[in-house]
Structure formats: C-alpha cells, structure tokens
Write a structure and sequence with these properties.
Helix content is 49%, strand content 10%. It is α/β, with parallel strands linked by helices. It folds into four domains: 204 residues, TIM Barrel; 206 residues, no CATH class; 78 residues; 198 residues, no CATH class. The strands form two sheets. A six-stranded mixed β-sheet has the order 1-2-3-4-5-6. Strands 7-12-9-8-11-10 form a six-stranded mixed β-sheet. Helix 28 packs across helix 35. The radius of gyration is 30 Å and the shape is globular. The two termini are 50 Å apart. This is DNA polymerase III subunit alpha. It comes from Treponema porcinum. Pfam families: DNA_pol3_alpha, DNA_pol3_finger, PHP.
C-alpha cells in the first residue's frame, strides 16, 4: 500500500492529550474521517500516539502502517457493544489483536444484537490483553477488566457541565472527544452523508471533531483535572507496538504467506513428479529436448529456493479438478504463461519455449515476489470452482475479500445538493457535464483548477465555462465545500469480484472477517492491497464469457461431427483462419472485434500467429501510435535497425520492441544482463523515476561495451530509445494467451460457420451478415 510521510511541525510542543475514541470512514455512515487525514492531523499537532476505534478492524493495518511511517504510536482498538453498553477495547499487545480476529464474526453480531461478554466467549484471561474505556462501568466490566478499565469522560459533555467532574474517581478516568469528522465545520458534511443513506438518520453531534490541547488542556487546568489528559498518556505507555519490528517487510510477509498456505505432502518431490510426468507427455512438442530439460531444471530449482511449491500444487489441483469435471480453464493470463513448469502442470496452456516467453517476467529472483496466478474459468460454472475450494480446504479456509466503494465528486455533489435542498434542475446539468466529459475519477481539485487540461482538451469550451462558473459561484460555496469534504469517503462495502484467500488453517487465525448477508460468504475485512502486507495468498478466480462461448461451440461442433472436438489442438498455422483475420472478419471474435482493429488487420495482412499477437499488443492506448510503423515495416520487408544484435528478437515485431520480454532480452544481448536483471531494468524504465533511470543508464553504459556489440556512445543512444518503448511495452505472455483464445474462436467461425452463428446468437442479438 502507498504510505505518505507528512510534514513534521516546528515549534509545537508534544501533545499532552491523546485521542482514544476515533472512528474512521471504515465505520460506514458513522464517520467521514479518512485515515490519512487523521494521521496528518495528529502529526500537525505533534501527537506521539493515536487510537483507531472503528466497529471493525477493517482499517487497522492501513492505520498502523501509516502511523508508524509518521513516527506516531498506533493504538489499534475496536468499538463493541456489550449488553446495552458500548466500550472501546484498545489492544495492549499482539495477542489482543488476535483475540479480536478470532471473535470477529461474533463481534459483528454483537453490534447488531448486543450480547454479554460471556456470550461472546471472551474470557477474563482474554480481557487482560486490553484496555477497556467505557462511559458506564458495569459490574461485569469491573470484574472482567479490573485495573484495565477506565471511565470515559466526554469533553463536549463536561465542557458544558463541569460540575459532572465533581466526585469523579480520576485515577481510572480519561478525557475523550469522540471523533467522527475532522474539523468543526465538517459537521454538515456528515449530516448530508447520513441523509443520503437514510431518510431517518441517527443523531449527529456537533462536537465530534478532532479536538486538541488548545481546547482540552486549558479546560482541565481550570477545573483542576489535568490528570484526565495525563491518563491518556498513561494508557499509551501501557500499549506496545503490537506487531514485531519487521513484521510488514516483504520477506517476513512472504514467509508468513508460505506458512499460511494449505499443506501438500512432500511438496517438493510431488511438484517434481507432476512436472516430469507433464514433460514426458508433451515431449513431442519440444524442438530442442535438452533446452526443455534445462528449462525445467532451472525453474524447479528457483521455485524450490523460494519455497513456492505449494502455490503451484494448489493451482495444479484446481485446474486439474476443473478439467476432470468439464469446466473450461483459460490458456493463461498475465505473466504466468511465461512459466514452463506452469505449462507442464496444466495450469496454463501456452508453451513458453515455442512463443519466446520468459520465466523471469513471472518470477524474478532479483526482486521479492510470489507466483501470482490469475486464472480464467467458464463464467457459467465459476461458482462450482469456488464451492470445490471450500469443500477441499474447508469453509473457514477459503474466504472472499472486501472492497470499499468511495464517493466520487459527482456523487458528493448530489449528496450535498439533497441536503441543501437544491432542485434537480440546478444540479443535473452540472453532473451531466462531469459524467459526459471528465475522467471517471476526476477530482474537485482538477475541476476547480482553471489551468487544468480538462478545460483545454477534454471539456468543450461553453460546458467548461458553465461548470467553472457553477463551482466558483459564491452562492454555491457551501455546496462545494460539503461535496469536497465527502470526496473519497467510503460509502459501501462489497465483495471483490474474483479474489479468494486460501489458507491451511482457519482464517480467524490470521485476520478479522465479516459475513456477507446476501451470499453467506465469509470475507476478509482487509482489502486486496493490505493482504500482501499481512502475508496471505490471494488467488483470482475469474469468470470469462469467452470460455463459456468456447464450451458451447465445442459441444455444437462435436455433435455435428460425431467426434469429440478439442479446440486446444487446433494448429496455429491454419491458412483460412489467418486469411479471415487479414480480411478483418472479426466481429464477435475476442479482443479483435473493434472497428479500428478490423481496419488495421486489413492493412497489416497477418499471415502468421505472431502477427495477431503483435496487433493484440499494439491496439492499446500506449503503443497505439506504433501500429502504422509496424504495418509499413512488414510491407517493406526491410526497415531501419536501431538495435544491433537484436535482429532475431525483433523480427516478429518488425524491428520494434513491443513486448516487455523483448526489452528484457535486449538488455541481455546488449549489456550482458541476466534475464532477471533485464526485468529489473525494464521495470525501472517503465516507472520513469529520474534518479533510478539515471543510475540504470550509467550501469547500462558501463556494461554494454563489454559485450562488444555497441560502444558506450551507442549504448547511451540505445538506452534513450528504449525508454519510451519500455513504458509502452506489453506483456507478451498475456498477449499470446489471449490471442490464442481469439484464434480458436476464429477457427471455429471459419470452419463451422453455422454452429458459430447459432451459438453467438446466445451472446448477441444480431450478427453482421458481411462476416459470413
């Protein structure tokens, strides 16, 4: 996840008051305070600690890491309903966090149906790991938490009624000002948000802002109860940094990921045996048997060295089960088709040796990474795959992942307008301009910036004038302020469409979870980007309609011919199929159906499978401008060579480095890099960070002359030429796999047109007659 370092204050004394009752926008509908804003505020006030007490732990890791980055002690807590009482439990140590994880489902229920501690199965021994802060110190809480129990004194309440401080036992009492929004003036933004969620919103308190020493300390001093603030410091001192120092580093996270995976008996030997069996079955495919054996040995050794055997075995089991049960599995996607072992295990269906794919693009020993398999399955039968995983590994070991919707600027304008009683006629034209002409994620800062490119290149002049006029009109100032405050606030929680976590032990051992009331699925409270920090393996199971289409086509063709038809055995050199692509007859053909693609196919006149892969990679926003050059170079038959020694690598793309794999190979040829080092160079070029680029350029210029292919001066020129290509270069592994599906479809369209037409009508109402 992205972590930001906020500016340190100068000349501000360390805060005496530590906020211990803060809810963020992860408590959807109750707070609009976002975690980065909370940490920035605490940093600006020179607070050395900060608590987060949402109703779930959803924001705990984001909060913890951001606080640590900014030299603030993070206090992870949770607001829980015990009986008719609400308490804030603050974790004193790692065991406390684990207890909250183990009981996360019961604690979710407790917020809806308050229970006693005993009903939640939280023992007195468990309670020793927490500080408990509550407004009402019941006998059950006193018995359970003892000296760890503190009376909560609401600053807003005693500020107006200081007499309530009389006769208060202040030895175990703390001052708090519950935070539900950041600044005093944000009160109306929360009110507007609550109104958008319910016509009868719960009460909002005008004092639930981020109070600080400037208000609280003078009041307590005046009333002789400064110890109420000192106790916030006392509590902070009792709380540890609950995660070990290096807990969230990539090596440690990967170690935990390996440990959390389902177990496979004798995994190393099992993986080798399956891979060798696959090798022997496919031996006839390999032009150079020794090269294939060397590749197998190299990859297996690398997998063993990094202890990723269980991930490969896991995906082998899933894909094998699917094939045994007639569920279509895609040929691969992303960088996974670059792995020879994946091909031999049947996880992918692309021979990387045949297509010039590179293992290091998938797993690179030069950087810390793990095998990230994203696998496509028949869309109609995807639920069966998920159910199989639950049956195989256990319902508590296969869970979904949370995703949070955030408010976009056009949504917040609507929310603010409703709250302020604007008419539809006033707000709809402005919303329409934003939706019609702006990028989906356009922000208020861009809309309010009159120098923004939006008003020069995106929004038509008069619409831009109208939009800016509305946003800058004094009478709309309050509307814009409320809307801007709500921008990016979380407004709903859902299930990430394709992500599944798979563990060897119950998920409660690792993270807090919730239960989706609609589907019954248990899901991680943490989002996808947090899970890697936590150290859990996320697998993407993607439903793809194209595989459903291929399944129905296969069934129809098999029925017609009377023999089983296997599209994966189709030759990639079928002349009639390639001719159909060259004529642009690609309506309804996966990845090739766009009118612009048809136009370029006719000009390129592809006569080999690699031409189709090239067009698939080129027809994208970045490399799009290279399409005419590739077409001209193919037609000319000879073309300028900017990269001496790389002719064999660039022959299939007509002198242009279009694939990421080509950049890696060029670094190997021109400067003697290993393939892993070449991948690191490609990444540096793609990210375009100046200081990193300059260091890599110097390294490239120093290493290139050693190969005796280019001089140092030529190396500098070549490096500069490679940079834009590296930025646009596409993953060849993905392009090959997805082009393969398109080719299979086109083959069936050409050779079995009646069956194709009939099946396609299920996916599309009307066919273009010209394609037949």
């Amino acid at each position: 996840m992205d972590l930001y370092t906020f500016d340190s204050p100068e000349g501000i004394p360390e805060s005496k008051y530590i906020p211990l009752d803060i809810m963020s926008d992860y408590s959807i509908g109750e707070s609009i305070a976002r975690i980065p804003e909370l940490v920035r505020k605490a940093k600006s006030l020179n607070m050395k600690a900060l608590a987060l007490t949402d109703r779930t732990l959803s924001g705990a890791i984001e909060f913890y890491l951001l606080c640590k980055t900014n030299d603030i002690k993070p206090i992870i807590g949770q607001k829980i309903a015990f009986g008719n009482n609400e308490v804030n439990l603050l974790c004193k140590d790692l065991e406390a966090y684990k207890i909250l994880c183990r009981h996360s489902l019961e604690l979710q229920d407790a917020n809806d149906f308050p229970m006693a501690l005993s009903e939640l199965r939280i023992t007195k021994e468990d309670c020793e790991h927490f500080i408990c802060i509550t407004s009402y110190c019941t006998s059950e809480l006193v018995t359970s938490f003892g000296d760890n129990l503190y009376k909560q004194v609401d600053f807003a309440e005693v500020k107006n009624h200081p007499e309530k401080l009389d006769n208060l036992d202040t030895s175990h009492a703390v001052i708090t000002n519950p935070v539900r929004y950041l600044e005093k003036e944000d009160y109306e933004a929360l009110a507007a948000f609550k109104l958008s969620l319910s016509e009868n919103p719960s009460p909002i308190y005008p004092d639930n802002y981020f109070a600080d020493d400037s208000e609280i300390i003078p009041f307590l001093t005046e009333n002789n109860h400064l110890e109420l603030a000192e106790n916030t410091q006392r509590i902070t001192e009792q709380i540890q940094f609950i995660f070990p120092e290096n807990y969230f580093t990539t090596p440690e996270a990967h170690n935990r990921m390996r440990e959390s995976l389902p177990d496979f008996e004798d995994a190393e030997n099992q993986l080798r045996a399956i891979a060798v069996e696959g090798f022997n079955q496919k031996l006839h495919e390999f032009e150079n048997e020794q090269e294939a054996r060397d590749c197998l040995a190299y990859e297996l050794e690398d997998i063993y060295n990094h202890h990723w055997e269980k991930i490969f075995l896991f995906h082998h089991e899933v894909t094998s089960w699917c094939r045994q049960n007639g569920i279509e599995v895609g040929p691969g996607r992303g960088s996974a088709p670059g792995s020879f072992v994946s091909y031999l295990l049947g996880i992918t269906n692309v021979n990387p040796l045949k297509h010039g794919l590179i293992y290091e693009r998938f797993l690179n020993s030069e950087r810390l990474c793990y095998p990230d398999f994203d696998i496509d399955y028949d869309y109609e039968r995807l639920p069966e795959v998920a159910e199989h995983l639950k049956e195989k590994y256990g319902e508590d070991c296969v869970v979904r992942i949370a995703t949070y919707g955030r408010l976009k600027c056009w949504q917040t304008l609507e929310i603010a307008a409703k709250y302020l009683n604007y008419s539809a006629e006033e707000i709809l034209p402005i919303k329409k301009i934003i939706l019609d002409f702006c990028l989906p994620r356009v922000t208020f800062s861009r809309l309010l910036d009159s120098s923004s490119y939006l008003y020069k290149d995106v929004i038509p002049h008069w619409d831009g004038v109208k939009l800016q006029g509305f946003l800058r009109d004094k009478k709309n100032e309050k509307l814009v302020k409320i809307a801007q405050t709500l921008e990016f606030v979380k407004h709903n929680i859902g299930l990430y469409a394709s992500g599944y976590i798979v563990t060897g032990d119950s998920i409660y051992t690792y993270i807090p979870v919730l239960k989706d009331s609609k589907t019954g699925w248990i899901y991680s409270e943490y989002t996808m980007n947090i899970l890697e920090d936590v150290g859990l393996y996320k697998s993407d199971l993607l439903g793809l309609w194209e595989l459903t289409k291929l399944k129905h086509l296969t069934e129809a063709i098999s029925k017609k011919t009377g023999t089983p038809f296997n599209y994966k055995e189709i030759s990639l050199e079928d002349k009639e199929t390639l001719e159909a692509f060259a004529k642009g007859k690609t309506t309804d053909v996966f990845q090739f159906e766009a009118p612009g693609m048809k136009k370029f196919l006719k000009k390129l006149e592809p006569d080999r499978f690699s031409d189709l892969v090239l067009m698939n990679a080129l027809y994208r926003p970045g490399p799009f401008d290279y399409i005419p050059i590739a077409i001209d170079n193919k037609a000319a038959g000879n073309y300028r060579n900017d990269f001496p020694g790389c002719e064999s690598i660039l022959e299939e793309t007509y002198g242009l480095p279009i694939y990421q794999e080509q950049i890696i190979q060029m670094a190997q040829i021109l400067a003697g890099y290993s393939l892993a080092e070449g991948d690191m160079l490609r990444r540096a070029m793609g990210k375009k960070k100046l200081e990193v680029l300059m260091a890599k350029k110097a390294e490239f210029m120093e290493r290139a002359p050693v190969t005796e292919i280019v001089s140092e001066k030529q190396a500098e020129e070549i490096f500069d030429i490679m940079i834009p290509f590296a930025g646009y270069a596409f993953n060849k592994s993905h392009a090959v796999a997805y082009t393969m599906m398109a080719y299979w479809e086109m083959y069936m369209k050409v050779h079995f047109p009646k069956e194709y037409r009939k099946i396609i009508k299920n996916f599309r109402e009307e066919l273009e007659e010209e394609d037949f």
